[in-house]
Structures are given as structure tokens and as C-alpha cells.
Amino acid sequence: MKTSIIRSLAVMIVLLAGNRLYAQKQWDVCVYGETPAGITAAIQAAKMNKSVLLISNTAHLGGVATSGLTATDLNNFRSAGGLTRDFYQRLYAYYSDSSAWRSESRDVFFERSKKRTFSGKNDSLKMQWVYESRVAEGILEKMLQEAGVEVVYKERLQLKNGVEKKDAGIVAVRMENGHRYHAKIFIDATYEGDLMAKAGVSYIVGRESNSVYNESLNGIKLNEIIGKDGVSIDPYVKKGVPSSGVLPFLEPRIPGPDGQGDHRTQSFCYRMTLTDDPANRIDIVKPAGYQPLWYEFLARFLELNPGHQLKNIISFTPMPNKKTDTNQADFVGANYGWPEGNYADRAKIAQMHKNYVLGLLWFLGNDPRVPDSLRTEMKRWGLPKDEFKDNGNFPHQLYVREARRMVSDYVMTEKNCNGEEPVQDAVAVATYPLDCHYVSRVVDEQGRVHAEGSYGKQKNTYYTISYRSLRPKASEAHNLLVPVCLSASHVAYSSIRMEPVFMVLGQSAGTAAALALDRNITVQELPYEVLQPVLLKDGQVLSLDRK
């Protein structure tokens, strides 16, 4: 008994001593969030001789880019420079080794992978855009170690009074476990923007009205009727009986006129890693608490479209070693509480999304209403034994496509993305089209089901992102940078939100933080004429114009 008490006291003393050390040390830069942007921000600031702490909310590094989203959303390899290029070049080097190919040869993979594989005319430019999650996480961990970045894992911001400020400057952040981290400059690289929000920085959740920034694609947007040839699926729990209520996660009415703003965000999903390699495959089983009504919508769609192919329900982008990045398993209408939710709220939403996607995969492989050909094809696929071993072989990060967005002195809008209003202080190039997944599914006055909120349109092939969109208003936080939940309209964010762009923006934020510290000025006072040459020196791509 005495021994256990002494041991417990000893542990408490060690923890208290550790807390004092954390409180006593002041970092030059504290990066909150283990996303690709957080990692590149931390590495860049460390390379510029700053002491850097990276706080990971989880036990992992890389956000969704190491949690299933392994078919990179980048349609012009030239836009990736600096640390982003380094990361994809390291992936190329890894897969150049024959030992990396455990389930198939490199040549066989080339045959089945038709896009996003390798780019560049010589070895100095060659990058690989498709990869395995665990491989990418290992590379990012090594890059952080090489740069001398200190990382703490499984720590989250205390959501009440977790940000300590003096006037417009952030002094320290406090974690749920009581750890306090002091820094001269902070970078919020989370998908949700919690640090930004709790620091009192202006932000928005959802869609602006088109009138706010004179846009054409923002706000509520009624899409196609869901069914076949203009004939809608039946939206009611009991077919033909409106009094039975609509199916789960259908909106019983159109929420407003096209172009009107609201609080909703585009749908989330888990980017599933699946494999058809029998030696590495775990069969998908019916999840506990399976909800049949969640899939009644799809069952009724398949009744109208019996020839529908599996690839048109969920996507299968080939990955190395007989795996796929499986997308489009969106749980439409289930994510609205995420951006402003507390950790318990988000855990519940994440679990719902996990249950939904596992139930969807089981439904597609087993429900008798699914055509035989689809069920047979789906049965080929299972979870990989060699990925996400500490999480039941399931991805550890929900794909949060959109949460909070900062409102700063400069807001990126549709006009920036389509080339009408180029910026003069570029810190990144983005090339992906405007791309918003469904926001909701709604029932009109005639009882027809429509998709709502989706679009895909862009005039320009690329555009640049403003430094001013990464920094808050000086009156709100003069030592904070926000490379993920940056200042952008819903429309602009639907293109900016790609992980390689976040990586580039993270490096630019790390550079800006270091330069501001060198000059003892705020991030708002940093002249672009000082920032730009350092970005270029470190390999950042700020234009795709060929001279």
C-alpha cells in the first residue's frame, strides 16, 4: 500500500514538474494542428532557426492526407514547390525501391493507375501523387525530426478560456490536460479553426449569400432531381405516405431561394482505404447499431436504376499494393454541428460517419435490393490489415471539407478563383476547380427529392492566394496566422481546400512567422516585399506563368 502511494506521488511530482517546464518555456512559434499545413509551417519556421512546438490533437500526423485521402487532389504538379514538392519527391523515392511493392509490382500498378501517379521529366522533378497512408505519415514524421520540431501528441485546446491574450496578442494556449504553451507567434492549422475562434478572431460558418461578395455560386443552390429521367425517388418513410415523415437526413422543404446564405457546410466523409488483396483483406461486417433507414434512400434509387454501377456510387482510385482511395461516401446532412461543436459533439458526429460508411459498404455487398453485379463487386473489397492498426484498420481522421472560415481584411472570393481579381501578394498557387459536394438533400412542394448545394465550375486554370487571407485583422490577433481556415468565401474555399494547397500555405505561414519575429513586428506589418523573395528562395511556386 505504502509503495503504491509513494509511486503515485512520484508520478504526480513528475507531471507537475513537466507542467512547470512547459509553462516556463517560451517557444518562438507554436503550431496548433497536425494537418499537412501544420507540419509544413512547423518545419519551415524551424528551418529558419526558430524554436517550434507542434501540437497534435491525435496520436497521428498528417490529418486526412495520412488517413485515407491518398489520391492527391492536385491537377497541376508545377504548383507544388518547396516542402510540398519535397514530400511528394520522397514518396517517389520510396516507391522507386522494389521492396515497397509487397502485393504487386510497380509495372502492374502503372497499368491499373491511369492518373496522379508520377510527374516530371527528370529525377529532380519526379513526384508521386498516390501513396499509402502509413508510408506518408512516416515520411512526415521524419521531415519533422530532421527539422528539429518538437511534437506533443493527443493534446487539445481547452475550449473555455483556453487562449490567453494581452490586448491583441496571444500569450499562451492552455490544453485540456492543463499544459500551457507560451509562444511569440501562433499558427492555427486545424481543420476547425478552434484556436482562431477562441482567440476572438472573426469567422463565418456556412454559406454567404451571393450578394455579400457579388458571387454567382454561393448560398443555397437547388440541384437535380434524384431518381431517373425526372422521376424522383419516394422521400417518405412509408412510400406514398407524407404523414410518415421524410427519410433520415432529408430536408422536408427547400430551405430558401437560390443564392441565400445559411449555416450549412458541404458534406463530410471518411476516405476509406480498401483492398482486394486476399492476403491483406479484412471482410466488412455489419456494424453494430446498423440503421437500415439510412440506406433506404439509396435502395430506392437503385430500384429506379438497376443498371447503376458501383463506381458511380463510390469511387475507387487505385493505390499502391492493391489498395484504393475510396471517396464519395458522403453522409449528406449529418455534419452541420461539427464546426462549432465541442469535442463530445464532434466525437458523436465522427462515430455516426464511421457507422454510416461501414454500413454503406455492408449494404452494397449484402442487401438483396442491391443488384447482384454490384454486390459481387463490392464483396471483393475489405479493410487493409496493414493500415490504421491502432484504430481497427479504419481511418483515424474524418474528412472535414469545410468548417470555420476566418473573416479578415481580405477575403478570397469567386472572382479571385476565376481570374477576375488576381491578388498582388501571392503565397500559393491553387489549381483545383471550384468543387462543392452536396450540402443537403431536400424535398420540394411536389414531393420530389433534389440534391442541393453542389457545383463544379471555374473559368481560370489557376489562381493565386493572398497573404492577407492568412492573417487576422490586426485589432483581433497580431501574432496569429491561419493557413487552413483562412479568410475565404464558401465558394473560394471549395477550391482552396485541397491538402497540397494547405501544405504550401503552411510553409508560407511558417516563413511569415519567422520573418515577423526576426523584425520584431506583427504579422500584419510584415511587408510582402520582404516575404516574397524568401518564399521564392525556399522553392515556393507563386506563379505558373511561363516566361
What can you see in these coordinates?
The chain is α+β, with helices and mostly antiparallel strands. Helix content is 30%, strand content 17%. The protein contains 14 helices and 25 strands. The protein has helices at 2-24, 36-47, 82-96, 106-112, 133-147, 194-198, 210-213, 296-304, 343-366, 372-379, 414-417, 490-496, 499-519, 528-537; strands spanning 26-32, 52-55, 118-119, 127-128, 150-152, 163-166, 169-174, 180-188, 203-205, 222-225, 227-228, 231-232, 272-275, 281-282, 315-319, 323-327, 383-384, 404-406, 426-430, 434-436, 440-443, 449-452, 455-457, 463-466, 480-481. Strands 1, 2, 5, 6, 7, 8 and 25 form a seven-stranded mixed sheet that branches. Strand 1, helix 2 and strand 2 form a beta-alpha-beta unit. Helix 2 (36-47) packs parallel to helix 5 (133-147) and helix 13 packs across helix 14. The longest helix has 24 residues, at 343-366. The radius of gyration is 24 Å and the shape is globular. Residues 7-20 have low confidence and may be disordered.
